[in-house]
Structure formats: C-alpha cells, structure tokens
C-alpha cells in the first residue's frame, strides 16, 4: 500500500465571506462534479475568518501499476462557469525542497498573511524523489511526473476554482527554490499553456544548475540510487521492476540525504527534457530550458523573479554537521561545484571549480564558512536568475520584473527553523556577483 504522504492533494483557502455561508455554525459545502467537499472554518493569526478545504484529490492516485506514470484525471467533465465580477484572483503555491522533500502543508505555508488580501489561495502537493522524477527513457519512463502532477493540479484549478469564488482567468502561479524553478518550467512547457496568467519565481529558475539535468545524468543517477536500494543491475528493465516492487517509503528515503554529502549529488533528481523519448504523448519539457528560452518558446505572461542575499545560508547546518567535509574542504567544495556545473569534461569542470574556489576564498574579511555561502549563493541561485532575466526580458512580450531581498530581520527561516546565522557584518546584505 502506498504511503499517504505521496498522494496528490490540493489545499485551498478562501476568505469566509466569499462563499456566503449561511451562518457561523453552518457546515460549508461545495459541490463539484466529482462529489461534495466540506470546508473548515479557521481563524488566521490576523483575526480574519477563513474557509479551508484540505486534502482535495486532483487526480487518481498514481499507485500500483500507475507508479512512475502520468496521473489520470478523475472522471467528470464539468462545464466551466462563466466568470463574473465577483470572482477573485487566484494564487497557486508550488513548494520547494530540491524535488525530493517538502509539502504544501499549512504548517509551513499557511494562508494567514497572504489572505489579508482578498484572493483565493491554493497550495499543491506533487510526487517527489524517484516517484516524481525517475527517468529511464528506454523503458518508457521519460521523467517529469512530478511536474505533470503540477499540471494536473492547475487543470483542476481551471475546472473548479470558480466554485470557491476564484477567477480561472486570473491565476498566478508562484513558488520558492525548486518551486520557483517549477514555476519557470511551466513557462517553458506546452502542457501548461493557458493554465495560468502570471508567474512569480522566488529563488529558483529553470536555468539554475541544480534545477535541470540531461537524460543521461538522470539515467546514471537512477542506477546509482538503485545500488543504494540493493537493486544492483545494468539492465534498465530490471531496475524499473525493482523500483516498482519497493515500498513508497523506501523510494522516498532513497533520495533524501545530506545536501552536501560527499557521496551524492546536491539535487539527485530533477526535471529533464523529453524530446526523443518514448512517452504517452504528454511531453512536459520538449527541449533544454536554455534552448527554449533563447528561441522564444515560452509563455509570455507577466513574470517576477529574484533572489535573497546569502541564499545558501540555509545549508550552513549541513556544512557544519559533516566534520570530514572540512578536513579537505577545497576538494569537497570543488566536487560540489563540479556537480552543480554539470560539465561532462572533468578537466574543464575541475579547472572552473578551482577558479571559483580561489576567487571566493580570496576575501579576507569573512570566515571560511561565509565565503562558501557566498559561492553557493551565486552559483546555485544568482547565476540562473540573472541569465533568465536577460534572456526572457529580451524576447517576452509581457513585463519581466526583478527583485533582490536583503533585509536581515529576526524572522528568517535560517534563524528560526534552522537556528543558523553568520555573524560577520560584512556580506550579510551583500549584492550578488554580476555574472
């Protein structure tokens, strides 16, 4: 039996008065083609009454024979209601987590602050790790199932959101880190056409070096993960069979590990291109992100993207927790840089990595840890975002906006959740290197 954490669900929040509930004590029920949903009344930290509809399935669970396959929609073909002036803008949140962790849980991504504005908020779950991103093209698994789950959720929004007071013609998708990169991938995907009208990528771009991998890279990683699961074989069909027989928990745990582990890649599973792969006709990514952008093959919608100062500070705890990492830190840092750069020519990769390490460690007014935080911030986040801005602004027919957030307050996730802070004053609000 599949773990419930792997089911594809929508969490939906709306300001209470939008659904005109009869009384404060009355159950709030919304009837869709697939059945009726009962909502919960909750009070936000800002003392506003909200209605929450939690755990809404947007597609049939991809379990059993459907594992590693594209989701199929629940039966029913509901007529889309005509939009009216009463319908509100919709915001759909895509969580991050290196494509291997995270969730849409309201514990982390609650509606309290964003619903001070009169919008409808939707947060979605999607398959992660091998379940969402396994790619073995020669046996009919082209990859990107996690991204196709997101497409299915966006289709659900188009079909049903008017029932919750949301306007299907005013949908903004937004996300952070891998969620931000996911948003950018939807701009490049033919499957996502018409499913959203604005987009916001926070600290994530399809051009970030960790966000995308070539099919050969994904194939190698599949066999490497298989070895960790005692699926030792050189036959892709046998490997797939072993993955299909494994428990869901085993598959999820196979790609969860230390971010800077010296024995694995930083982001082991990623979206990949599907051109030339055997598929069921549902191609999410028809080419390399950079090629699609350069040729203008993306959806021109108003787009906001940007980064924070010292993005990589969230990984400080990982760096500090691996003593062996610091015994030969230059070698280990170089290996991580080589992995992020995704270069096939190892001699070139090592040369570039050595140059990067030398450049960033030359700053004398920072701790060694601070220098590496700056290196990974620029390489992992700033580089891809700046390239995205330049390429997309040159060809988009819609506005493209940029931001850089550098406020060093007390409510940052690195300080609260990870209990991490780099104390030296210099560099805390440092401008990113210009690439």
Plain-language structure description:
The chain is α/β, with parallel strands linked by helices. It has 2 domains: 55-311 and 385-398, Alpha/Beta hydrolase fold, catalytic domain (Rossmann fold, 3-Layer(aba) Sandwich), CATH 3.40.50; 317-374, no CATH class. Residues 1-8, 74-84 and 424-430 have low confidence and may be disordered. Helix 10 (329-341) crosses helix 11. It has helices spanning 129-133, 145-160, 178-188, 215-228, 236-245, 248-253, 289-294, 316-320, 323-327, 329-341, 346-360, 368-395, 413-416; strands at residues 9-15, 28-32, 35-43, 49-57, 88-94, 120-124, 166-176, 198-202, 303-308, 400-405. The longest helix has 28 residues, at 368-395. It is globular.
Going by helix content, strand content and strand pairing, the class is alpha/beta
* Main sheet summary: 10 strands, mixed
CATH superfamily of the largest domain: Alpha/Beta hydrolase fold, catalytic domain
What share of the residues lie within helices?
25-40%
Instruction: Give start-end ranges of low-pLDDT stretches.
Output: 1-8, 74-84, 424-430
Strand order of the largest sheet: 2-3-4-1-6-5-7-8-9-10
GO molecular function: carboxylic ester hydrolase activity
InterPro entries: AB_hydrolase_fold, CarbesteraseB, Carboxylesterase_B_AS, Type-B_Carboxylest/Lipase
Protein name: Carboxylic ester hydrolase
Domain Carboxylesterase type B: 28-72, 84-407
């Amino acid at each position: 039996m599949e773990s419930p954490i792997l089911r594809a669900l929508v969490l939906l929040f709306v300001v209470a008065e939008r659904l005109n509930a009869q009384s404060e004590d009355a159950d709030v029920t919304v009837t869709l083609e697939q059945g009726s949903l009962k909502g919960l009344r909750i009070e936000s930290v800002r003392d506003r009454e909200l209605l929450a509809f939690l755990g809404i399935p947007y597609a049939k669970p991809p379990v059993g024979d459907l594992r590693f396959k594209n989701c199929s929609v629940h039966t029913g073909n509901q007529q889309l209601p005509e939009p009216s002036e009463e319908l509100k803008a919709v915001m759909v949140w895509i969580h991050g987590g290196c494509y291997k962790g995270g969730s849409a849980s309201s514990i982390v991504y609650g509606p309290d602050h964003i619903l001070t504005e009169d919008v409808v908020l939707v947060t979605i779950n999607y398959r992660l790790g091998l379940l969402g991103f396994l790619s073995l093209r020669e046996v009919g698994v082209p990859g990107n199932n996690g991204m196709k789950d997101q497409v299915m959720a966006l289709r659900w929004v188009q079909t049903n959101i008017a029932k919750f007071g949301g306007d299907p013609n005013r949908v903004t998708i937004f996300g952070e880190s891998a969620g931000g990169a996911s948003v950018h991938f939807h701009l490049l995907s033919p499957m996502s056409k018409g499913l959203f009208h604005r987009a916001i990528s926070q600290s994530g771009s399809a051009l970030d070096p960790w966000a995308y991998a070539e099919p050969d890279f994904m194939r190698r990683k599949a066999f490497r993960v298989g070895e960790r699961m005692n699926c030792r074989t050189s036959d892709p069909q046998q490997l797939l069979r072993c993955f299909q027989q494994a428990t869901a928990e085993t598959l999820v745990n196979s790609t969860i590990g230390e971010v800077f582990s010296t024995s694995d890649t930083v982001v082991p599973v990623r979206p990949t291109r599907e051109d030339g792969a055997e598929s069921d006709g549902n191609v999410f990514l028809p080419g390399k992100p950079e090629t699609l952008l350069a040729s203008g093959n993306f959806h021109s919608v108003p787009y906001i993207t940007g980064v924070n100062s010292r993005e990589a500070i969230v990984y400080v705890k990982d760096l500090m927790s691996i003593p062996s990492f610091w015994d030969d830190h230059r070698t280990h840092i170089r290996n991580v840089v080589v992995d992020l750069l995704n270069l096939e020519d190892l001699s070139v990769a090592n040369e570039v990595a050595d140059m990067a390490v030398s450049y960033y460690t030359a700053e004398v007014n920072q701790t060694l840890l601070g220098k590496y935080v700056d290196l990974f911030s620029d390489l992992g986040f700033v580089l891809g975002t700046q390239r995205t801005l330049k390429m997309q602004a040159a060809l988009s027919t819609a506005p493209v906006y940029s931001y850089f957030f550098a406020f060093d307050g007390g409510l940052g996730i690195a300080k609260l959740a990870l209990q991490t802070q780099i104390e030296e004053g210099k560099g805390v609000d440092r401008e990113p290197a210009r690439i």
